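Here we describe the complex-level prediction in full. Unlike the single-chain runs in Section 2.1, the two entities below were treated as one system.
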Amino acid sequence: MESIEPTLRAPLNGDMLVTASLWYVAFLFLIAFWAERRAGQGRAAWLHSPYVYTLSLSVYCTAWTFYGAVGTAARGGLEFLPIYLGPTLVFIGWYFLLRKLIRIGHAQRITSIADLISSRYGKSRSLGVVVTLLAVIGSTPYIALQLKSITLSFSAFAGAVPADAPDGSGRITAFWVAAGLAAFTILFGTRNIDANERHTGVVMAIAVEAVVKLVALLTVGVFVVWGLNDGPASVFAQMPPNLSQIETVFTPRWVTLMFLAGTAVFCLPRMFQIAVVENSSEHQLATAAWAFPLYLALISLFVFPIAIAGLAQFGTDTNPDLFVLTLPLAAGQNGIALLAFLGGLSAATSMVIVATIALSTMVSNHIVLPIWISYRNIQTTGDDVRGVLLTSRRVSIITILILGYLYFTVSEPRALAAIGLISFAGMAQVAPALIGGLYWQGATRVGALAGIGAGFLLWAYTLLLPSFEGGFLLSETVIASGPFGLSVLRPQALFGLEGMDTLVHSMFWSMSVNIGLFVGGSLLSSAQPLERVQARQFVDVFRSPDTAAAPVARNARTSDLYHLASRILGLDAANRLFDVETRAQGKVVGLPEANDRLIQALERELAGSVGAASAHELVGQVAGQWNVTVAGLMRIADETSQLIEAKRRLEHQSSELENTARALRDANAQLKHMDAMKDAFLSKVSHELRTPMTSIRSFAELLSDMDDVSNQDAKRFLRIIRDESVRLTRLLDEILDLSFLESGRATFNIAPVQLAEVIERAIASSEGLIGTSGIRIETVIPDPCISVDTDFDRLAQVIINLISNAVKYGRGTTPQITITTGNDAVGAYIDVSDNGPGVQPDRREEIFEKFARLGEKTIVGSAGLGLPISREIMRNLGGSLVLLPGGPGATFRIGLPTAEMAAAHAASR
Amino acid sequence: MTQPDTDRDPEPQLGPDGYALQDDARARSIRALRDRARCVPLAGAFLLLSPLLNAVSGAGTIAGVPVNLLYVFGVWFTLIFITFRLASGLEHDDGEH
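The structure predicted for the assembly as a whole is:
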């Protein structure tokens, strides 16, 4: 607290304030002058530091912030916050929007927000004019606000701290402030026509002012919290109930304020000027992305405590907008008060300076120069074009300040915040066309013009004009009861929408209509060729190189182009440009050829000075109008679509490759499995074949080796050899049969077959088996007429196999086999069941595998291929063979296909 | 480290082993950074532009300071800090959105 002890004890009077102000302004002049000199000597690397950029961005915090934020906090609690939170969100989201905006700004040599909109929509002159008018009209109240805050701060020192009654003296103060600002701006803002519209001196002065603002506000804050009170807790203890008991912070007004502030930070002419035009590299943005929100947070940190302390000390009688000044004054802290005064002066002057530079550039590039061009031809006139430009900018600066001064004298006394918000709402009308133009190629000039135009009119009708409270254009009766007594058209309750906050009401109508017309107009109109070229360069700025091929052929004489360049850019800059182009064309000396590249480069260079639309117009006068060829346009469209197509194809191919790889992997796994199965099969087959072969060989050896073999023995041995040969043959037959069936080469003789007949034949054929075992076979055939299309012999074979299987395994106490026929949902079936022990559940599928019974004792010399063969036969016939679940014995079901299914199956084979 | 040229075969351009891997890892980390940078404003919008604000309003005071004020400034400084951490990594990123 010692550090902020007053240095000035004597009461401040007006003269001292004026002296202090003059010294301060002289100091700023010096800074600006020095920075420009350093830049001129090429020793200004640190002037492009991201921190200077960040500080210069703080031109966002005007006198409205410095004085008005406290006022807003005193009136509405947390409501002052969205004004700083909106820009915070935009800046921490720099990667979305600002990065693209700045990239485009550099690529297209954008000079102002009007230039950006005009350039995006086909270098449209009309859009340039509309946005410029909107900006001038929207900024005028804001400039008036700064003048007002300065006069207010003077009056606060005058002693009586009256709310605000700008008598004659207030107006005189405001007039001289405006005049001084005009002088500074003209001196540093329009010294020359810079190729990039950058103003090093001004930016440096603004950065210094930013530091003064922050230090002043923090000092006052620290003084109020720890000097006048005992820390934050004691400040907040004095909080009046109307501020502490606000429980609905999140309201339509909160959202509207957030939106307005978020758009303002890149749409307001001065913010666009600093953030985009004065930006010298994208790297500055990466730092500003966090540093600028930090600046805003620090600026806002003490706003609420100051407001509370002010209310506690002065009540609501005094103007809360001036608490920053009146608190230290009342405590006799003249030093702090003076610092606060200079902070406020900084806030106000920096805004006015940058805003007037931005506006004057817009007015001269989009209104004055187009008019001049339409009356004069650049090739024939002897006028000094640069002189015209500079003069028009200087006149614009003075005019804009006069407008601001007039608004200041006309407008009713209002809170600072209300005036600022009118400005924000006006420039927010540009936001839809701007953002749409950056991300939507289909946005057209017609849509943008309709949207901005309608939004502008609605904003003026519902917000700007009523703010004069009958003083200008709209009378008080019209505001109260609508034009011609039509209450539907009341400016502040349009179409009967009553009871809303006037700001929210105005934003609702103007933004809805704006966005609606912008989108609708874009959808219903088609873009001109130049618009399409520009749209592509804007939307795809990160994709396409900034030197996109010009789809036009233009002709000009190099000397004419040089003449044009030197008239606008000046001799030095023109020489530099043409030297670069000469070297690019591979020449050593002389002028470059006037090819498309040169013409384009020149147009871009000119755009950096006079805006895209005027540059286009000027080059058009020399090189002929921009006549797009259909082939050229096709080429543009082609490049994009080819890229997209190539990408799509690559993606398709890669997914195809992936599928193929997966299929190959699957196939490989299947092959491996089959290979293993084949190995197992072979080893089983060899084993099966070896058994009979071994016995044949051993008996044959016995016969040949033994000399005294009896006739009877010889006969026995020969019978065994014969039996084993038969078994071997049968085994080989079965294997062959199975391999035929599996490969699908077996032929079938399909004909209508009576099931009863097949069963009868099968039982007859099995009699040999049955006879020896004494098994009884019972048939249950409810419908003897069931008939299916199938192969008679093969089906009989399947039934015989099943019967023999049952004979072999179905050894019940009184062995019995039951054969049943029937129909189910799928078709006819034949069940063959026995009353044996059945099949273990875990072996149900195994029994259909080849040589499943390997190693088991078999009664008849079967190799265990009966069931696999039967299943293969049924598969080939389009039917099925399954083991039905449940007991007691085993029941095999032969599913028989209906005629249609058999036909379908035959067709598929 | 040079960015591999996609038009040509990248093999000859890669000097010592591991360059391709490093580039890959760098591209992946840049992508992750971009995703995070995109999420920060969305999270910010949710925290500062939603009825959450009403939830913390009227919740009394901490050390004499209203909770909603602490909440807003807390979120604010947190967002700034996260952006600070992310921004340096993306400063030289020239890629597509």
